Automatic annotation (TrEMBL):
Gene3D superfamilies: Aldehyde Dehydrogenase, Chain A, domain 1 (3.40.605.10), Aldehyde Dehydrogenase, Chain A, domain 2 (3.40.309.10). It comes from the Bacteria. This is Aldehyde dehydrogenase EutE. Residues 37-427 form the Aldehyde dehydrogenase domain. InterPro entries: Acetald_propionald_DH-rel (IPR012408), Ald_DH/histidinol_DH (IPR016161), Ald_DH_C (IPR016163), Ald_DH_N (IPR016162), Aldehyde_DH_dom (IPR015590). The keyword NAD applies.
Length: 479
């Protein structure tokens, strides 16, 4: 199913036309279904929706997010296909799977647990209150999935949100938001809990960052958008860049390590910020691991093929007066077969990952490449492997992975890396509850320290104290 540019125009026209036929008792923004061309209007509508949501119960919030979950899961094929057709990056099966996974596993109102302190001097209750309107920037790599996960988290906490999506993922963002709001309005009579800018620009993002009615910012993106959010003067939750390294030591189960590396690095063609980007392997098992990778279905490139791929897939650009190596946009999120062809090799289109041996100075090692080619670097021992992993993670403190059966090696790497996510003997996504324990979010706040976001991330602590009463245990203190 192809989505042309006329879709977004027709959807915007449809919802704008509905405003004129809205019942007299409703607000001026009811009927818009969250779709706005003006960022100021979007924020005003979200603020109005927040006021209405504030009058409702937590059970009503649960009903809202259950609606979002159901649409994400029931309409995953159609919406995932829309996203694939629009962005032209990643893998269709994984676009579909991401919507289902976020619909099922994103934390909801069950995370809103109150704390109570009871003692001689009465009772104190700590509850979690919403911030209000949250401004969001979402990436092209996971446009509607990020909106879906954020909406569930934020609305569970009692907030509303205004989204400035990546321009290359705006159509599916608009359509997904329209469907969510339509169903929510039919069920609860509240519109615009999720607002989206139909034609997102840097200017609309700037309005959201600095609007007086936006209480908080949540962004997912690279260093530039992260810096802008932190300079907004508001509370900011920033999901920044990553370059997750993998270490494989001499005690690892090599076949298991190979399967895990392929699973994580190939998922959605390596678009995940947590995905395995480079592998540092102890020399004594290096050749055996390379064979294990081939047994598990990955295709190895030779040195000449790697050189050819590097020349076209990594570009040098000038940023802030300095030259920097970055992934070439024509290869980001493309299939392994596309990369292999650029390297001069013909492979089966079903191959999910290509790999090869490089030294640590190959640009694929330091660059967050977001494509299904993984460089493998020989290291003398595990100490050297961990040191190189720390260096090429760049201090993002995002994600790191080790394959080992030596607890001391795991411990040393965990302490050295100090990353938000640290995975032992599994693929990267196991850290988000996919094959491991825990919960999922596509907003993983590393620079600002919140980690994998939950509804509590988007709430304020409020303490209510009653002095000298309602403590019914023991004897009262002197009054």
């Amino acid at each position: 199913m192809q989505i042309d540019e006329s879709l977004i125009r027709s959807v915007v026209a449809q919802v704008l036309a509905e405003v004129g036929s809205a019942p007299a008792a409703t607000s001026g923004f009811t009927g818009r279904r969250g779709i706005f061309e003006c960022a100021h209007e979007a924020v005003s509508a979200a603020r109005e929706a927040f006021e209405r949501l504030s009058e409702r119960t937590v059970a009503d919030r649960k009903q809202v997010i259950d609606i979002i979950r159901k649409i994400a899961m029931d309409q995953k094929v159609e919406l995932g296909t829309m996203e694939m057709n629009e962005t032209q990056i990643g893998r269709l099966a994984h676009k579909i799977e991401k919507l289902e996974t976020l619909g099922k596993m994103t934390p909801g109102v069950e995370f809103l647990e109150s704390k109570v302190y009871s003692g001689d001097h009465g009772l104190a209750v700590i509850e979690h209150a919403p911030f209000g309107v949250i401004g969001c920037i979402t990436p092209v790599t996971h446009s509607l999935p990020t909106i879906t996960g954020n909406a569930i988290n934020m609305i569970a906490g009692g907030n509303t949100l205004v989204v400035n999506p990546h321009p290359s993922g705006k159509r599916v963002a608009v359509e997904g938001v329209r469907r969510y709001n339509e169903a929510i309005f039919r069920a609860l009579g509240i519109d615009n809990l999720i607002c989206v800018i139909a034609e997102p620009t840097l200017e609309t993002a700037d309005v959201i960052f600095h609007h007086r009615d936006v209480a908080m910012i949540c962004v997912t993106g690279g260093p530039a958008v992260a810096k802008a959010a932190l300079n907004s003067g508001k509370r900011a939750v920033v999901a920044g860049p990553g370059n997750p390294p993998v270490v494989v030591d001499e005690t690892a189960d090599l076949d298991r390590a190979a399967r895990c590396i392929i699973q994580g690095a190939s998922y959605d063609n390596n678009l995940l910020c947590i995905a395995e980007k480079e592998v540092f392997v102890v020399n004594s098992v290096f050749d055996d691991l390379m064979k294990a990778m081939e047994r598990a279905g990955a295709v190895r490139l030779n040195s000449n093929e790697i050189d050819r791929l590097t020349k076209v897939a990594i570009s040098e650009v000038e940023m802030n007066g300095k030259k920097k190596m970055v992934a070439h946009k024509d290869f980001i999120g493309k299939d392994a077969a596309v990369l292999a062809k650029a390297a001069g090799k013909s492979i089966n289109p079903n191959v999910e990952l290509i790999f090869g041996e490089t030294d640590e100075h190959n640009p694929f090692v330091p660059v967050e490449q977001m494509m299904p080619f993984v460089p493998f670097v020989r290291c003398h021992d595990v100490e050297e492997a961990i040191d190189k992993a720390k260096y090429y993670e760049h201090g993002f403190r995002h994600t790191a992975i080790i394959h080992s059966n030596n607890v001391r090696n795991m411990t040393r790497m965990g302490r050295a890396m100090d990353t938000t996510l640290f995975v032992k003997n599994g693929p990267c996504m196991a850290s988000l509850g996919l094959g491991g324990e825990g919960y999922i979010s596509f907003s993983i706040a590393t620079p600002t320290g919140e980690g994998v976001t939950t509804p509590l991330t988007f709430t304020r602590e409020r303490r209510c104290s009653l002095i000298d009463d309602l403590c019914i245990l023991g004897h009262p203190g002197k009054r």
